[in-house]
Write a structure and sequence with these properties.
With 311 residues, the chain is of the alpha/beta class. The protein is built from eleven helices and ten strands. The strands form two sheets. Strands 4-3-5-10-6-9-7-8 form an eight-stranded mixed sheet, with helices on both faces. A two-stranded antiparallel ribbon has the order 1-2. Helix 5 crosses helix 10. The chain is elongated, with a radius of gyration of 29 Å.
């Protein structure tokens, strides 16, 4: 089967845009050419087919019956072509998601299989990173979506608050059973040394103690870890009590691996922020909509759980 020449294919593209807008001027604007070039392409196509595609008048242009038939075909062709291109792009280019290792491990990774079931044609590559957002990596397309946990305001990128956070002390039941009584000054406190870039030392335990134990007058100390996951891991090994973020400990509290030995839930001074490189990219839009829905579901479940531990 022979295919139309390149000249005919180019003319068909011009015809489709002009027929969609019913304006040679608007078609020229969309295709970044002159109105004269559009008119020339349409005349070429009409000569090639041996029929008129438009009725031209002082009030504008309308399609002839033959033009309407051709436009219906072109609508289907371009729609199917775009669908194929979207699928090919999705298969060949994974969506790059950058976030902290702890959030990736405890919250996002366990939910990604659900996204893959819903959208098998959009592969995702999860990149766990310690550092602050690299705007250059974002602008170059090496990162499509970033999730960051911090209190700062983002002004030079497209960012929106994704999920608020609460902090709550957690430990194993066996660690608590070994204590005759729970006195905060006698407990072994475990710390994430830097919950976000530039965070004050011991800030999470400090914020919780200030709100829940106002008469505590001891110096805060205890082992520090450069990942919240490591501090939580130490708590699971009966090494002490870790300050948990609700998103990271929710599943372990439900399963019974963690208990909440000290009453009181404190709102974190930080929150999770969603940063997108290209908000009109179809893959980004699909993923971010899914992610927001997951956060909404989690927030409802989390708030019900935390209410039982609030003073």
């Amino acid at each position: 089967m022979s295919l139309p020449s390149t000249s005919v294919l180019g003319a068909l593209r011009c015809f489709h845009v002009a027929a969609t807008k019913l304006s040679f001027t608007n078609a020229a604007t969309e295709l970044c050419v002159t109105q004269g070039a559009i008119s020339q392409q349409i005349r070429f196509l009409e000569r090639y087919l041996g029929l008129s595609l438009f009725v031209r008048s002082s009030r504008g242009i309308t399609l002839t019956s033959e033009g309407e038939i051709l436009q219906k075909v072109m609508l289907r062709v371009f729609s199917e072509t775009q669908s194929v291109l979207d699928k090919l792009q999705a298969h060949s280019t994974p969506l790059q998601i950058s976030c902290s290792p702890s959030f990736a491990l405890h919250w996002l990774a366990p939910r990604l299989s659900g996204f893959s079931v819903l959208h098998p044609n959009i592969p995702v590559r999860l990149v766990a990173e310690f550092q602050d957002l690299n705007c250059e990596e974002l602008s170059r397309g090496r990162i499509d979506i970033a999730i960051r946990y911090d209190p700062k305001k983002y002004e030079d990128v497209t960012a929106e608050d994704l999920l608020d956070e609460f902090i709550i002390p957690v430990s194993t039941a066996s660690f608590i059973d070994e204590k005759a009584q729970l006195e905060l000054c006698d407990l072994h406190l475990l710390h994430d040394s830097e919950p976000w870039v530039g965070a004050p030392r011991y800030c999470e335990w400090g914020d919780w103690i200030e709100e829940n134990c106002p008469h505590y007058n001891r110096e805060i100390n205890g082992p520090e870890f450069n990942l919240s996951s490591l501090a939580l891991g130490a708590a699971l090994k009966n090494q002490g009590i870790a300050m948990g973020r609700a998103a990271l400990v929710y599943d372990d509290i439900l399963s019974g691996r963690f208990v909440v030995p000290l009453g009181g839930v404190t709102r974190s001074r930080s929150r999770y922020v969603l940063i997108s490189r290209d908000t009109v990219d179809k893959r980004t839009l699909i993923f971010t909509n899914w992610l927001k829905l997951e956060c909404l579901r989690f927030r409802q479940q989390r708030d019900e759980l935390l209410e039982t531990y609030s003073k």
